[in-house]
Design brief:
single chain; 6-stranded antiparallel β-sheet; 4-stranded mixed β-sheet
Length: about 250
């Protein structure tokens, strides 16, 4: 089932990327569905690069568990975008970092050119944003949602650092933007959606209800897929069907 799901995601994503890429829309990149394999289908020259983490210390001691830190992938087809995987052993993309070369639309539909963008152009005088700058970092992080963060260079001559001199930083140029998705939650949610239908002795049952069945009590198991599953069980069988038959008691 997982292979079928991945294949469908690949087809859908490639159709999306087949559209005009002159103006990039970040909303076209579905984090946790997008993979490096999909990107390589579009650009075989996708390149792995070292990536600066604006929210982390350069010593690498502190990590952000939502994505693979300090390793990214870039393509000439998507200027100003660095893609980062969820985990080193998975190809799923969990983070997009926008550099000063990026020109396009943010997830909220706002068009930006990062090299011309000041912080005030994005957040204005909104009080909803949190401001944070680690002592070991060169950047101030501004966000009202951990999924979207803006960064400006910290002026280390400003004392004290806190409270933050917001009037000063609102006039500073944005150095980078992070867009991050929680792929762990995404997988948990979607695993529930794509579970197969389980039929025990002709009756629909839950996955939990078959956990107590002893292997020696099982006579045989049928696995139905695609049309065979939906022909017999209708829409409920769209994710496949597992039929379990028990041995008859003597």
């Amino acid at each position: 089932m997982k292979k079928i799901f991945t294949f469908l995601v690949l087809i859908i994503s490639l159709k999306t990327f087949a559209q005009n890429t002159d103006t990039i829309k970040i909303s076209d990149f579905k984090l946790c569905e997008l993979t490096t394999d999909i990107l390589k289908q579009k650009d075989p020259n996708l390149k792995q690069i070292k990536t600066e983490e604006m929210d982390l210390c350069s010593d690498g001691f502190v990590q952000d568990a939502r994505f693979e830190n300090r390793i990214g992938y870039e393509s000439k087809l998507f200027s100003g975008i660095i893609f980062q995987k969820y985990q080193s052993n998975l190809n799923t993309i969990a983070k997009i970092h926008l550099t000063k070369d990026f020109k396009g639309f943010l997830p909220n539909g706002k068009y930006i050119e990062v090299d011309k963008l000041k912080l005030k152009d994005i957040i204005g005088n909104s009080q909803d944003y949190k401001w944070r700058g680690r002592e070991c970092s060169d950047y101030m992080k501004i966000s009202n949602d951990e999924s979207l963060s803006y960064y400006v260079k910290i002026n280390k001559t400003l004392e004290p650092r806190y409270p933050v001199d917001k009037k000063y930083y609102l006039e500073q140029q944005i150095e980078g933007i992070d867009i991050v998705s929680n792929c762990y939650s995404y997988y948990e949610k979607n695993q529930q959606k794509i579970k197969p239908l389980i039929i025990l002795e002709g009756k629909e049952v839950s996955e939990e209800s078959i956990s107590s069945i002893k292997p020696e009590d099982v006579d045989h198991i049928n696995v139905l897929k695609d049309k065979n599953a939906t022909d017999k069980y209708g829409e409920k069988g769209k994710n496949g069907v597992i039929e379990i038959f028990l041995k008859k008691k003597k």
